[in-house]
Structure of Metal-dependent carboxypeptidase:
Amino acid sequence: MSAFDELVAHQRETEALGNIAGLLSWDQEVMMPRGAADQRSEEMAAIESVLHARRTDPRIADWLARAEARDEAGGRMLDLIAHSYNRSTRIPARLATELARLTSLSQGIWAEARANEDATAFLPTLEEVVRLKREEAAAVSEGNLYDALLDDYEAGATAKELGAMFDRMRGPLVALRDRVLGSDVRPEPLDMVFPENAQLRLARICASAFGYDWTRGRLDMSVHPFSSGGGDDARITTRISESEPFGNIYSTIHEVGHATYEQAIDPAYRFTPLGRGVSMGVHESQSRICENQLGRSAPFTGWLHGRMTDAYGDLGIDEVAFHALVNRVEMGFIRTESDELNYNLHIMLRFDLERDLISGKLEVADLEEAWNTRFEQDFGVKVSKPSQGFLQDVHWSLGLFGYFPTYALGNVYAGCLNQAMRAATPGIDAGLAQGDASAAKGWLDSHVRQFGGLRPPRETITYACGFTPSEAPLLAYLTEKFEAIYRL
């Protein structure tokens, strides 16, 4: 075997073991008995120890020095493996194992604290997570600690450039939101009970509409909706409130966007660094375009109105009012249930707070107060319980610092993709009106998804769209849409 072949064979086993670790995490959030938390933390620590040893195997340096790529895909594999090796060798095995053990325990502690509205029960654990993430950032950093963590989720991005983009977005978003809230249009929530079983059936119908392959996926319940795995095993979860059906519907569509990305990647890339979504920003572009530009469009909500009427009886509103309700703008507390105008403002809050946490400017003991103060400034309402505030998201319990800004970046990418896709693909809206997103899925599969990690994130979007990504298409889409709905 050549050096390249030996390296790829080694990487194949490492990727497979990583998938197994992912299945353990999925099981922990979906099916694992609560009493197994301590045991699972040891299992996660053990597999992370094996993975870290493989990622830092000295043979990788030798293989990389001698390996010759045969094509573009091979060259990109070498670049990604080298990046992973250089980063992994800077992280002590002790730290990698300790983080895996702690974050496995932490998510259970977070879930219980959230359910009990008991912030103090989670703070000591979060303090330890932050301490270890600061240590990790210091180990791999070449300057900015937060940038070192951001690199895990969006290679090449920096807090400085993301902060500048958010600054450019904030003013137009707040101004449009204020105009919307000053409108005479006032969509009212549906005052009905939406039984869990009926919601699950409708969630499956919506997932199928967006092309989710049920032979390679499944839908389950979890505290926080998520997508896990890839290739021939791409799973999603949702959550249900019997008084509010849209959280379930749009969480499901969102996670289907992630899963169909993974399901569409070229099978030839399986068990290589190319065989998964290239970054969380690009991943979020797939989930957010499905959820928003497609799933909240008038044609699709017209179809959804019919399906909900079939499931629950007369809703008491017509398709036009239903579309306005699905796109209702309000000062809500929960990021995953927020409207398109407020969503990015939720992300900007988290981005600023977690940067301060990693830099040491903000300590965990002061996080809840900092969150609540900033939230009232940005949204004009007071947080009354931790589940509305800093305990609402699972990410920090898992040590996912640097992840949050990729949601807003994903929205920006989705705006670009939507503009390019609609210019190139007639018939998208006609299909959506029939509950069929296959035209959009086909374009996304062929222009983005099939390539997996073949190109860096921004190049992936540039290749698909034919232009350099910016926030302009997203802001134009939001302005046109909400001016029409709210008759501005």
Remarks:
- The beta strands are 219-221, 227-230, 233-238.
- The chain has two domains: 3-140, 159-485.
- The chain has a mean pLDDT of 97.
